From TrEMBL:
GO biological processes: DNA repair
PANTHER family from the UniProt entry: TYPE-5 URACIL-DNA GLYCOSYLASE
One Pfam family per UniProt: UDG
Chain ranges of the Uracil-DNA glycosylase-like domain: 31-151
Gene Ontology MF term list: 4 iron, 4 sulfur cluster binding; deaminated base DNA N-glycosylase activity; metal ion binding
The protein, known as: Putative uracil DNA glycosylase superfamily protein
UniProt keywords, alphabetically: 4Fe-4S, DNA damage, DNA repair, Hydrolase, Iron, Iron-sulfur, Metal-binding
UniProt cross-references to Gene3D superfamilies, sorted A to Z: Uracil-DNA glycosylase-like domain
């Protein structure tokens, strides 16, 4: 894969071919960021209000908790500088009223936006891990897990704490080695 030189830090969009399919296509995106290459990726479901305001992921209440838990479990300072952060959908989900008068509820909008962003996410994951089979991708919620694995019926609490290998060759049709995926629901921890 071509891309940035090793050790560079990137903040921006990787690949977004399907915005035209998304009900949130006219809203502001929160781009992914982090070091490239990376061996560790956090994939959230979507940005929150604070992330949208600042234009950076994982800085709101859930992000603060995530980095705190990360520090406690790792026994060292947070690894924000060594972790790529992204979302299954890059835009803040909200209810949308269509021209027909039909209202798409927030959960349906989230599903549609995650599906529209999926191709971007899969290529992004491949690019930032630079095909490292030891890279760990941690989906942080139902929609991020479903987007990474392609299992659209998965229940996050059934998968919580599990580790599985995801075959991204089938997911993005050009991948040479599956990185492991650890499922985690950060949003549930804040309730």
């Amino acid at each position: 894969m071509s891309g940035l030189e090793s050790g560079q830090y990137y903040h921006g969009l990787i690949y977004q071919p399907d915005c035209h399919l998304c009900p949130l296509r006219f809203t502001r995106m929160v781009p992914p960021d982090g070091p490239i290459p990376t061996r560790r990726v956090f994939v959230g479901e979507g940005p929150g209000d604070m992330e949208l305001w600042e234009g950076r992921g994982f800085i709101g209440p859930s992000g603060v908790l995530l980095w705190k838990l990360d520090q406690e479990f790792a026994g060292s300072p947070p690894r924000e500088e060594s972790t790529w952060v992204t979302n299954a959908a890059l835009c803040l989900p909200k209810e949308i009223k269509l021209k027909t008068g039909v209202v798409l509820r927030k959960e349906k909008v989230k599903e549609l936006s995650v599906k529209a962003c999926r191709r971007r996410l899969l290529w992004e994951l491949r690019w930032v891990t630079q095909d490292n089979p030891d890279a760990v991708i941690q989906p942080l919620g139902k929609w991020s897990y479903r987007s990474v694995t392609g299992n659209w019926k998965a229940k996050i609490f059934a998968m919580r704490g599990s580790v599985e290998r995801v075959d991204l060759i089938k997911q993005c049709e050009a991948y040479d080695g599956p990185p492991p995926v650890a499922a985690h629901s950060n949003a549930a921890a804040t309730r």
